[in-house]
C-alpha cells in the first residue's frame, strides 16, 4: 500500500535511550535518520513526541504538583523534545517546523490543521508539540487528534516492542503477537494500545493504527514501502 501522509507517534522515554532521563544524542540521531529515510520516499510526515524523558504530568501530580500545572509542565517537556528533533532533522537537510498546542513565540506557532497541511505539502516534517494544548489529555490523544486533523493515511505508534501482544512479551515469553486486529477486538480483549480517548478518536474517524518497533533500523522505511511490520488495528 502506498502512503502519502502519516503521523508518527514517538514516546519521550525513547529519546532517553539507555539514560534514565534527558535526551541521548545517539538516540536523537537515530530517529532523525529513520525519519529522513521515509522523507526521501516523498512521504509527508507529521510527528508527535511525548515528554516523559523530562517530565510527566501524572508523575508530578503523585508527588504533590497540581495536576493541571503538572500537565502544562509535561507539555513544555514535549516542546524541548520537538526542538531537539527539529534541529537534528535540519542538520540532515530535512525541512522541519514545530506547531504547538500552545503558541510560544518565537519558538513555534499555534497548531492548526490548515497550516499543518500547508507545511506538509511544502515538504516539511511537521512536529506537533505541547499536546492538544489542554490538561488531562495524553500525547497518544494528541497523536490521534493530529492524525485526523491532517487527514493522514495512517497513525504509526513507534514502541520498543514489535507489535501488540495478548500480554506483556517482556514479562511472558509465551505472549502471542497479533498481526491484525479490529478496534472492536482490541477493545473487547482489553488490550492497552493507546489511552481510551485516543483509541476512540481513531475508531470513530476510521484512522488505522500500526504499532511497531521503531528501534529496529529501517522498520519505518519498510512500512512506508508496504512491507507488513508490527500490528495493524483498523475498523
Secondary-structure map with pairings?
Blueprint: E1 5-10, H1 12-16, H2 25-39, E2 44-49, H3 57-62, H4 67-91, E3 96-100, E4 109-110, H5 113-121, E5 125-129, H6 139-149, E6 154-159, E7 164-165, E8 177-178, E9 180-182, H7 183-188, H8 196-204, E10 209-213, H9 219-224, E11 231-234
Parallel strand pairs: 1-2, 1-6, 2-5, 3-4, 3-5, 6-10, 9-11
Antiparallel strand pairs: 7-8, 10-11
How would you describe what is shown here?
The longest helix has 25 residues. The chain has nine helices and eleven strands. The chain is globular, with a radius of gyration of 17 Å. The mean pLDDT is 92. Helix 2 crosses helix 4 and helix 6 runs parallel beside helix 8. It has a single domain, classed as Carbamate kinase (3-Layer(aba) Sandwich), CATH 3.40.1160.10. It has a nine-stranded mixed β-sheet with strand order 4-3-5-2-1-6-10-11-9, with helices on both faces. It is an alpha/beta fold and 235 residues long.
What's the CATH C level?
Alpha Beta
Named at the architecture level, the CATH assignment is 3-Layer(aba) Sandwich
The total number of structural domains is: 1
Major beta sheet summary: 9 strands, mixed
* Number of helical regions: 9
CATH third-tier fold name: Carbamate kinase
Report the strand count: 11
Apparent shape: globular
The computed structural class is: alpha/beta
Helix residue percentage = 25-40%
Order of strands across the main sheet = 4-3-5-2-1-6-10-11-9
SSE arrangement, N to C:
EHHEHHEEHEHEEEEHHEHE
Rg from Cα: 17 Å
Averaged pLDDT, please? 92
Distance between the termini: 17 Å
Low-confidence region ranges: none
CATH 4th-level superfamily: Acetylglutamate kinase-like
Could you tell me the strand content as a percent range? 15-25%
Amino acid at each position: 500500500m502506498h502512503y502519502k501522509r502519516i503521523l508518527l507517534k514517538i514516546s519521550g522515554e525513547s529519546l532517553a535511550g539507555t539514560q534514565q532521563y534527558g535526551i541521548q544524542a545517539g538516540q536523537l540521531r537515530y530517529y532523525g535518520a529513520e525519519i529522513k529515510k521515509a522523507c526521501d520516499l516523498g512521504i509527508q510526515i507529521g510527528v508527535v513526541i511525548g515528554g516523559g524523558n523530562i517530565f510527566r504530568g501524572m508523575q508530578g501530580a503523585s508527588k504533590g504538583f497540581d495536576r493541571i500545572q503538572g500537565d502544562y509542565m509535561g507539555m513544555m517537556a514535549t516542546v524541548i523534545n520537538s526542538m531537539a528533533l527539529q534541529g537534528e532533522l535540519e542538520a540532515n537537510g530535512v525541512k522541519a517546523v514545530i506547531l504547538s498546542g500552545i503558541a510560544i513565540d518565537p519558538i513555534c506557532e499555534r497548531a492548526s490543521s490548515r497550516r499543518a497541511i500547508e507545511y506538509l505539502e511544502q515538504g516539511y516534517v511537521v512536529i506537533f508539540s505541547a499536546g492538544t494544548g489542554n490538561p488531562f489529555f495524553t500525547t497518544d490523544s494528541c497523536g490521534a487528534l493530529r492524525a485526523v486533523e491532517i487527514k493522514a493515511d495512517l497513525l504509526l505508534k513507534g514502541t520498543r516492542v514489535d507489535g501488540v501482544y495478548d500480554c506483556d512479551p517482556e514479562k511472558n515469553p509465551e505472549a502471542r503477537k497479533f498481526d491484525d486486529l479490529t478496534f472492536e477486538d482490541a477493545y473487547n480483549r482489553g488490550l492497552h494500545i493507546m489511552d481510551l480517548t485516543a483509541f476512540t478518536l481513531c475508531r470513530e474517524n476510521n484512522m488505522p493504527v500500526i504499532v511497531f518497533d521503531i528501534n529496529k533500523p529501517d522498520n519505518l522505511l519498510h512500512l512506508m514501502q508496504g512491507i507488513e511490520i508490527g500490528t495493524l488495528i483498523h475498523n
